[in-house]
Design brief:
Number of helices: 26
Largest sheet: 6 strands, mixed
Radius of gyration: 22 Å
Number of strands: 17
Structural class: alpha+beta
Shape: globular
Bound molecules: iron/sulfur cluster
Distance between the termini: 29 Å
Helix content: 40-55%
Strand order of the largest sheet: 2-1-6-3-4-5
């Protein structure tokens, strides 16, 4: 199959057995790869009501036709599972070099099923597959484990590893790779931990067949040329994703003190220029990337090195905790990476606890004596470790803010910043209606990367609620995640502004199949509807209520910043949903209508 590894590796952890099956040509035609394969198998193979941390849940690691190919951003793979954090759909994208090795080992997907009786490492070297005893590295931190494997086996081996947080089933444990890349959201690391898989080590040397090598070379070169000639390349490479921090503060979208504000007075200490000047040592990218957004940094204060921080960590571990010191954020980033927790949810959970503490809902008795005020750097470091060990208050926070606030009560639910149980990523949305809608309707919970529409809000009028705004969100949700289906990175299109029409010729040269973006957006729409049906299948009573945003964003106007005093109204929130459901051809409760599923040709997949 041109553009594919051609095989799926199934790992039965319970019995220590492996099998391989051919990648389905029909599935590749209908859902292409990556997230598309993930949701198909999740619906088909994980039974309704499965415990996310039990033996019935599975992990689906899938590449796409762009993965491992010589084209910008061809270094991504998708990790799909039932999410321990939300009880719904989890799909986390991983950059770095893992996906390329999977393809070179001939694999389009790895399925982890069952539970191993003891800690293991899944070792894959081309056709050789083994489960190796990992008792000696169980309990170890991620970077140490990765280093150990690289030293032992060689730099060409790629490693995905969980830390103590994954082993301890922290519901937002992540998977680390390449020392600083993560499959971050939803608790994919806890699923690995529940299966007793400490690490996956992979190496491949095979080649991937392409339909038209000459056209592939030309299309790849055209994409690289567009990236290299982009006016945005210099600043993007210099600052990476932190390039947006100043802008976010200027427009009142920088998450500040548990999203109570969108403006942080200490923002300068966290900006891209400050970071570059104070801590960045060099740039680091994923496989084949001409625009490396990764920043490898050194903190003199803490005598440590880390890949990062990127914008989300700066927002959530910095301003959201009232911390304006980039070195402290870099150190918090390192600790999260080492123990293996998602910095976005961790920043939210600690921010929520800080607000509880300042409001007297949590006291020193609850914090084991920690003065958990906003801005307390040492308390933040301590909480990261406690979350990973599930110790004291860390145990409560290890469940995420939805469950933690439910347990604590006393009105703390009002400032638990999540949608569907997933904590909101780095944009405060007090009055940015399309971005608010993007969070409300995102298919994994309050995550930004499906439809990053906040710039559109600023462009057309942030408070407006119009069909055009909603249509923008719907279009982005159908289009942007297609990069996760293709196994590629969207950031060259987003940040360098390269013409998206350069991608279909590359896709055609690789696979031999002609596809326009309109055609691929249809695939995106199918996947969006499948993920929605998965939520409905797994959660009784799922519907409109699940799409409601945190009250803060329609009840508490920010007191500072350029959008001071402005707030979206509840009636606007409801109108956004009404228009959104109509445009999606869903019913008024937010469920796909039978005729919509039929029209998309997916009714049998969700029957
Ligand atoms: Fe990886 Fe960043 Fe390059 Fe995308 S832009 S491929 S995330 S380094």
């Amino acid at each position: 199959m041109n553009g594919y590894g051609g095989q799926i590796l199934r790992v039965d952890l319970t019995n220590g057995k492996f099998s391989k099956e051919l990648t389905s040509v029909e599935l590749a035609r209908d859902l292409i790869g990556g997230r598309g394969f993930g949701i198909y198998y999740l619906l088909k193979e994980v039974p309704k009501g499965a415990d996310p941390l039990g033996p019935e849940n599975k992990m689906f690691i899938s590449t796409g036709p762009m993965s491992g190919m010589l084209m910008p951003g061809g270094g991504k793979c998708d990790w799909t599972t039932k999410a321990p954090l939300t009880g719904g759909y989890a799909s986390a994208s991983l950059g770095g070099h893992f996906s390329a090795e999977m393809k070179y080992a001939g694999l389009d997907m790895i399925i982890l099923e069952g539970v191993s009786p003891k800690p293991v490492t899944l070792f894959i070297d081309n056709d050789k597959v083994e489960l190796r005893d990992a008792s000696d590295i169980w309990g170890k931190r991620t970077i140490a484990v990765e280093k150990m494997f690289k030293e032992k086996l060689g730099e060409e081996y790629q490693i995905a590893v969980i830390g103590p947080a994954g082993e301890n089933l922290v519901s937002y444990a992540c998977i680390n790779h390449d020392y600083g890349r993560q499959a971050g959201r939803g608790g994919v690391g806890a699923v690995m931990g529940s299966k007793k898989v400490k690490a996956i080590v992979i190496h491949g040397t095979g080649s991937i067949p392409v339909a038209d090598p000459k056209a592939y070379r030309e299309a790849g070169l055209a994409l690289y040329k567009a990236c290299k000639e982009s006016a945005g390349l210099k600043d993007w490479t210099r600052y990476g994703t932190v390039i947006t921090e100043i802008w976010c503060n200027d427009v009142g979208a920088l998450p500040t003190r548990n999203f109570s504000e969108g403006f942080f007075e200490g923002s300068n200490g966290l900006s891209g220029p400050t970071m570059r000047e104070k801590i960045v040592v060099t740039d680091k990218g994923c496989f084949g990337c001409p625009s490396p957004c990764g920043k490898y940094s050194r903190s003199k204060k803490y005598n440590s090195y880390v890949e990062g921080p990127e914008y989300e960590t700066v927002g959530l571990m910095g301003s959201n905790l009232g911390i304006g010191d980039i070195e402290a954020v870099a150190q918090a980033n390192l600790l999260c990476d080492e123990v293996g927790i998602d910095t976005i949810t961790a920043g939210n959970a600690i921010g929520w606890a800080m607000e509880c503490y300042e409001k007297g809902i949590l006291t020193k008795e609850d914090t084991d004596g920690l003065d958990l005020k906003f801005g307390n750097v040492e308390a933040t470091f301590t909480m990261i470790e406690k979350i990973a060990r599930r110790e004291g208050l860390g145990d409560l926070l290890s469940e995420g803010v939805k469950r933690a606030s439910k347990k604590v009560g006393k009105g703390s639910e009002k400032f638990a910043i999540h949608v569907k149980g997933m904590e909101q990523s780095g944009y405060a949305t007090h009055n940015a209606t399309s971005m608010l809608l993007a969070y409300m309707t995102c298919d994994v919970g309050a995550h930004h990367n499906r439809a990053w529409s906040i710039t559109y809000d600023i462009q057309v009028g942030r408070e407006k609620v119009t069909p055009e705004k909603v249509a923008r969100v719907v279009w982005l949700q159908n289009f942007r995640p297609m990069f996760d289906v293709l196994g590629g990175c969207r950031l060259q299109w987003v940040e360098l502004g390269i013409d998206r029409e350069l991608y279909p010729p590359a896709f055609e040269a690789i696979t031999g199949i002609h596809r326009s973006w309109e055609d691929m957006e249809k695939v995106g729409e199918r996947i969006w509807n499948l993920t929605r049906m998965y939520w409905a299948r797994e959660n009784e009573g799922f519907g409109r209520e699940w799409d409601m945003p945190p009250q803060r964003f329609y009840q508490e106007p920010p007191k500072t910043g350029s959008n001071k005093g402005q707030i979206t109204k509840l009636e606007d929130v409801n109108r956004l949903l009404d228009i959104y459901y109509e445009q999606r051809r869903w019913d008024s409760n937010g469920l796909p209508k039978p005729e919509t599923l039929e029209e998309l040709g997916i009714q049998e997949l969700v029957a």
